[in-house]
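Consider the following assembly input.
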Amino acid sequence: MTGLLALVLTAAAMIWLRYLGPGGAAASAGTILALGFAVIGAWVTGDLLRRFQLPRLTGYLLFGVLVGPYLGNIITEAMTGQLRALTGAATTLIAFIAGLALNFERLGRGVRSIAVVTGVTIALASVTLAAVVWLAWGWLPIQPDASGLPKLAMIAILVFILVSFSPTMTAAVIADTGARGRLSDMVVAIVVLADLVILVLFSTSVQLTRLVLAPGSSALLDAVGRFVWQIGGALAFGAMTGACFALYVRYVGREITLVLLGVCVLLSQMGSSQEFEPLLAAVAAGLVVENLSVAQGETLRAAVQRGAPPILIVFFVFIGASLRFDTLLALGPVTLGLAAVRLVALRSGLFAGLRLAGVQDHVARLAWTGLISQAGVTLGFASIVAAEFPGWGQRVQTLVVALIAVHELAGPLLLRLGLVRSGTLEADAPRPMMVVSNREPFLHNRRPDGQITWSAATGGVAVALDALMRERGGVWIAHGAGSADRDVVDEKDKVAVPPDGPAYTLRRLWIDESTFTAYYGGFANEGLWPLCHVVDVRPKFRSDDWAAYQEVNAGFAAAIAAELGGTNTPVFIQDYHLAVVAPALRALQPHVRTALFWHIPWPYPDRLRICPWRQEILSGLLANDLLAFQLERDRRNFLMAAEEELDARVEHESSRVWFGGRYSTVVSVPIGVDYDRIQTMAADQALPDEQHRLSTLLALRADVIGIGVDRLDYTKGIPERLAALDLFLQRRPTLRGRLTFVQIGVPSRSELENYAAIESEINHRVAEINARHAVPRGAPAVCYYTIPLSTYSLVALYRLAHFCIVSSLHDGMNLVAKEFVAARDDEEGVLVLSMLAGAAQELGDALIINPYDVEGFADALARAVDMPAPERRARMRAMRQIVAGRNVFGWASDILEGLENIWTKPLHYSVRGWEDMNV
Amino acid sequence: MTRSRPGGRWSADRLPVGSVLLAGCITGPAGINLISPGVLTVLDAIGPAALAAIGVRVGLMLPVSRIRTHSWSAGLLDALLCVVIVSGGIWLLAPVVSPGPSSTPVALFAVLAAICAGTSSVVTGPTDSTRTGRLVAETGSVPLLVLGALALAWARHGSPGSALSFVIQSNGIALVFAAAGWLALRYAASANEQQVFAVATLALVGGAADYLAASSLLAGVLAGLLWRAASGPAFELISRNTNLVLYPSLGLVLLMAGAHAELTHPDLPLLAIAYVALRTAAKRLSGLLLHRLLSGSTQLLAPGVLGVALALNLLRAAGPDASLLLSVVVVGTIGADWLAAFSRSTERRA
């Protein structure tokens, strides 16, 4: 709706503008306007059509037709003429992309059959079309009185134009639909290879036609020379440009998108000025880049994904706007007849080619659907003929433009149909996914009376992933930790969840207690956790723990492989407990798609060196296709570590790492909270009752209430928080008995020494502060509560508090900060937030403190208590906008979309799926 | 991946204006012809979007609700002084020079040159006085941009009434485009899509003004103010995405202006010297009058990009009639920029 409104407003303003008329000072006035209008309008139209399962490209073309000079006339003929200047660069870019599509290594043994199919298809289609055109020559509006050699030459040119394809359209439809399979690979390869051959055939026929129409010995020599130069010069210049470009990408690697566009302009300009075939040069350049330097080819494709869409959109709008429907109507019967003959000729040619190549399955027989589209290349041929042979050449151009109108509207629809029928693209099919985590989303426990009950995980991440799984279906693999977990699973250790409305499968993995202790308590929480958090706790690395960690990770990998079977379901792996799942999984299923989210900070390289198995962990993580961290800082630290420890090649522009013969994309995707759910709770009419209950339970009678909610962990800075509170109350004795700080501290990992120590220290400090600041009949300074509260109760508490403290000594994100903000739709409350928590990167309007600076921390508490209402509200409003804009569902789908977009990369480029990976 | 340029030498506020202009002069058709007339035609086509980007930045960064009355007054006083002194001085030179083709009246030439001269750029720094100086420069520049747009419309449409009506209508269209762009940005599904929509919106806002031969700069300022008023996440999005193209836009505008300058005009040296001298005198006077707000009297001397952008905008909208004006502003800005740098270093040494 928003997009449609934007489109309507833009169109209305354009009409208003046209009403006022041009100022007329500059010749190019209107170019940039038409450009902006084309991009926004076509983009939105493409999206609208997508909702009706139609290709976006059809939307771009349709938009061009609707607003073009021959229908809506919002984009005038003069503006269209100015846009034409861009099309030279755009067609070169298209040809370059086509070159990038041909990787001979990837095609492998299929090259031979592709070549046979392509050759036979072109040959048979050309012969069929030539015969039909010869017979129907008198009815074609070209030059009915031509005969003999000139007629033959004209027919040759027309036939090669008719047979030509559109690699751009084909590749764009495939990328647009997200299809990937044998049919899509085959179609792209045929179309690109065929256009390469047709380019040569077309150039040859143009030279021969010149010779036929202007006979003479000098003309013959001249024509041969020109032909050699057109083809040879184009190939040589293209190859040289491609090689230079590959070197640039390899050794400079900056602003690749801009340089790529510059190269396309150069190829286009040089082609025009030096009279060689620019499209052939561009294909050659793309081919060189793709086949001589595979790694650079990947980077280039990323650059193309970023830069190409706006240019291609403008190109398609231009084509749409140039479509003369009056011509189409006048040439209607001839056009439709030729289009039908072309379709039959291509289909027959393809079938014959497949038979000769020995490929006879039904998927391959659908490849004709990808050969129908015509656009830029065909239009380029027609323009050349019109320029070279005024008169009949211009009539050929008119006929070809009418044919393109038919083919570019029908082609994308047919290809999509073919993809659906081949099973490459299952329209409206669910897209199942697999989630792998240590903790399970639903636990089954046995009560003392023997009854089995279940409970759902309450954490924000678990809730978000559970919601995604409900929507998409699939399997969630996790460690079964509930006391009755074994009692409810089937023989394959599976149970349908959620128990009250099954939507997906939970596969439970059993880990014996000693292994679990070493894997989870040992390596993960006594090793990796303190390694990744910069606090005064030494990581403990024991080889037994590491062995258990690897064993458990391998167990997870085996379970994933078994569940995947032969499917290509994306796998979403959760957190630092499962760092080496991916390599074990890849050994079992090399083509699996995996993403791992690392929730905790990633240490800087010097600290990482503490870990004896850092290289194994790094290489294990790099076995994922997508690796996501909370913050940019973590992403940078990881990339540095990959370079230093593994000598991996890091491409900073695209944020990818080349290691072990494959790429991993590394991104930062800060996690959010379930904002809407918290909003609903905050607006619940029963919430005041819950607040009253909590006030009674916690004996809250102070005027000023502060709150802190944490797991009892040494990284949370709870002693530092209490020290600051102590100092603050010493400075402001008037608040004694009037201020209570509620500390909700949920014990965790208490069996570990460091955790037990911090619990004891907190107990001691709370007692000390309460004794020091006690006032007769006054409220206690600290109310310490160690029973976990539900999210609903927490929302109630957040809304009671005047301020909330998050004082982590180091934290990946800290969702308490965001939950507090989400709960305050009254725009009250002050957040005091540690600069060492990841949330501080986003919530700049909190009172940012350094937990190690106790005096500064106490000052911040004073500011929080004294803050005037307008400032308080302004800060909270600003923070709420940020928290609302990035909820936990967006986080999860960003990662999944990132993973799925990476997978579509081999499809050359995507008109919409071109987002860079810094989601 | 974008690189941040926090306060570095090449930050948007510290662009070496004079040097880039000079580079434009050298590489332009009057120089070594690297930026040939053909290339310049292509650049001219995208120039309005760059001008709109600069305008948007001014609008987005202007904290209208937080500016106190005395800052507005100071800005207006600075602008007014400069317009009066520079236009008066150039008008007095009328008997010895013949600026522009006969279709450009001397008075209009003088006023437009003075408007371009009135803009300033204060190098950002940590002190309050510098921040105040910056505020004065910004608040003074906006009325000058409005005045420039009105003068241009008046020159084209003959009467004040039709000029005002034209300015309102042309900027109304720009605001509708800005609103559409704001919606499109909210609709965008990814960071790169946002970038594309932001650039397309700049193209629409600048392109609409260009199509009507109005001021792309003013259209940009108004769009920026609209987005600022809308606030919230959309403001953040627009701010972030327009900032991405701001720096190339500044460089492009300066290069284009330099390349368009006609350095062989016989009256150029005298007019340029007068421009620099009068501007310096006006800014010094303004600095002295505002000494309570501005600790150093040289703070407003740096000419910045806005004057050049305005002159380029006039050339784009008015055609060759504004050619001499642009040349004077380009050469005068190079001189003023270097003079400001010299004054700053002298002041620091003192």
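Residues 1-13, 123-129 of chain B have pLDDT under 50 and may be disordered. Ask yourself how this observation constrains the way the partners meet.
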